[in-house]
Design a protein that fits this description.
CATH topology: Rossmann fold
Number of domains: 1
Helix content: 40-55%
Shape: globular
Order of helices and strands: EHEHEHHEHEHEH
CATH class: Alpha Beta
Structural class: alpha/beta
Strand order of the largest sheet: 1-4-3-2-5-6
Number of strands: 6
CATH superfamily: HUPs
Largest sheet: 6 strands, parallel
C-alpha cells in the first residue's frame, strides 16, 4: 500500500479553538516524552538558508514546532511590502517540509505568548541573535529547557533574493 504524505498540522494561535487543539497536540507529544524544539520567523521566500536552518533545528530534538508570523505581524515588522506570500501559503509550504512537525501562526510581534503555551525543551534562533536577547529565553530556562543559536548559511536571505529580483 502506498504511503500518502500529508502536511504537518497548522494551528492559528489567535483562534481559541485552534489554540486548544494545539495544546492537546503538545500534551500528546509530551506524553510520549518527545523533546520539542521551537523556532519562529517569517519564512517569506523559502530558500536554502531556511531549509538548512530548519533541518538543523529539527535534528536537535524529536519534533520541530515553527512559529510563523501572521501577515499582520510581518507588515508591522518588515513594512507594507511584506510579506510577499500570504500566511496560508507560507504555512502550507513549511508544513510540507520533512523537518517541520507543527506550524503555529501567531499575530503578535514576538512569539512570547506562544512559547509560554508550548514551553519547548529547546528554543532555537539564528546566529544573528545573542542568546540573552532571544524572546522566551527565561520561560524556557525556568522550565529546564535550553536556548541555542544556529549559524546562518552565508549569503542566503530573503532580503538578498528580493534585491536580486529588483535589479533584474
Amino acid at each position: 500500500m502506498p504511503h500518502h504524505l500529508q502536511p504537518s498540522p497548522v494551528f492559528r494561535f489567535r483562534d481559541l479553538t485552534e489554540r486548544e487543539e494545539f495544546v492537546r497536540w503538545r500534551n500528546a507529544q509530551r506524553a510520549e516524552r518527545k523533546r520539542i524544539v521551537f523556532t519562529n520567523g517569517v519564512f517569506d521566500l523559502l530558500h536554502k538558508g531556511h531549509t538548512a536552518y530548519l533541518l538543523e533545528a529539527r535534528n536537535i530534538g524529536d519534533l520541530l514546532v515553527v512559529g510563523l508570523n501572521a501577515d499582520s505581524s510581518v507588515r508591522r515588522l518588515k513594512g507594507e511590502t511584506r510579506p510577499i506570500q500570504n500566511e496560508e501559503d507560507r504555512a502550507y509550504i513549511l508544513a510540507s517540509l520533512k523537518a517541520c512537525d507543527c506550524i503555529v501562526i501567531f499575530d503578535e510581534d514576538t512569539p512570547l505568548d506562544l512559547i509560554a503555551a508550548l514551553i519547548p525543551d529547546i528554543l532555537v534562533k539564528g546566529g544573528d541573535y545573542k542568546i540573552e536577547d532571544i524572546v522566551g529565553k527565561e520561560i524556557v530556562e525556568l522550565n529546564g529547557g535550553i536556548v541555542k543559536t544556529i549559524p546562518f548559511v552565508e549569503g542566503k536571505s530573503t532580503t538578498s533574493i528580493v534585491e536580486k529580483m529588483r535589479q533584474q
